[in-house]
Amino acid sequence: PKDKGWWNENLAQYQGFWLPSLAVLGALLINDHFKPRPTDIILSTSPKCGTTWLRALIFAIINRNSYDFEHHPLVTTNPQDLVPFFEGYIRRNGSCSLLDSLPSPRFLSTHLPYSLFPKSMASTCRFVYICRDPKDVFVSKWHFMKKLRPKELAPISFDEAFELFSRGVSHYGPIWDHALGYWKASRESPDQNVLFLKYEDVKKETSVYVRKLAEFLGVPFSAEEEKEGIVERIVRLCSFENLSNLEVNKTAKEPRIKTRPVSNPDYFRKGQVGDWMNHLTLEMSRLLDQISKDRFQGSGLSFDLQE
Ligand code: A3P
Q: Where is the Sulfotransferase domain (predicted)?
């Protein structure tokens, strides 16, 4: 089945998920050609769950000995441009040869569901997954996606978009199944190579999670680094306040891709937990909470739900 999605790009239902054609092609090419390495780091997210932030944090953690903080690439480059988008990179090149030529450790970002990756990757690479309360994801997505809708089409209404989202019809949706795939892998994988994070937790205690990430990625902070305050410097460098106020993320207004009117500032909106309260009716928030409860029942996964 196909659906026009939120901004007139066909989404196809593939193995239970609503995916753009780029993702389906990317997944097929990955399965056929990608040669995983044990040093590979795959950041996986549903769109609007904190991809940009985690790209920045992981980049800063694994490259902390290559740059000083004043001349850090994150000061002059949007995190989207520092980390290859896995399925997009492969699809554009039609092969994995460019990825094959990248030095280790390779750090790639993806929106693909866990079940679409080959078994060889599941047992070899490290996956970091970040999820977020679907209510905030919907609101974030609504603001982002409406920019992408072609001008010649009537704008999609908030209610229409909500109805699609709650049915799972949104990029890489349903968000619940996306999160569950990684959640189960994080608990059941004998290789312990899936780190499952929540945006809300990372927001509350960022430095705790920076340490956790470093450990998981095999590069824990030394006592000396701790003494020098490197963790806190990484937290500050990657904070919403810092990144969103950098020249490159604030003023670069040209579209990132010619056909899509999205520019660097669009990746930084509010960066808060609970902005859904300013947008959703009580009925809407209850519906999304109920779906989360139903879908996650018995899995051990939940969000702190508040009205
Ligand atoms: P909001 O729209 O709620 O503000 P993604 O990067 O996956 O597209 O997610 C975008 C969301 O993450 C947006 O949420 C954006 O503001 C927020 N975000 C971007 N950078 C962030 C940062 N450094 N810290 C916290 N949130 C950030």
A: 38-300
**What is the tens place of the pLDDT at every residue in 185-216?**
999 877 789 999 999 999 999 999 999 999 99
> Which residue among 111, 143, 171, 279 is the active-site one?
111
Residue with tokens 């009716």: 281
Residue nearest to atom 9 of ligand 1 (CA): 48
Measured in Å, residue 49 CA sits from the centre of ligand 1 at 7
Angstrom distance (rounded) from CA 137 to CA 273: 10
This complex has an ipTM of: 0.99
Return the residue whose CA atom lies nearest to atom 2 of ligand 1.
140
| Strands of the 17-20 sheet, one edge to the other | 2-3, 11-14, 17-20
Atom 18 (ligand 1): residue with closest C-alpha?
271
Q: What pTM was estimated for this model as a whole?
A: 0.95
Q: What is the pLDDT of residue 260?
A: 67
Tell me the pLDDT tens digit for each residue of 254-286: 776 666 677 888 899 999 999 999 999 999 999
How does pLDDT run across 72-85, given as a tens digit for each residue? Answer: 999 999 998 999 99
Name the region of 77 (left: φ>0; alpha: ψ -120 to 50; beta: rest).
beta
What tokens does 298 get? 């018995």
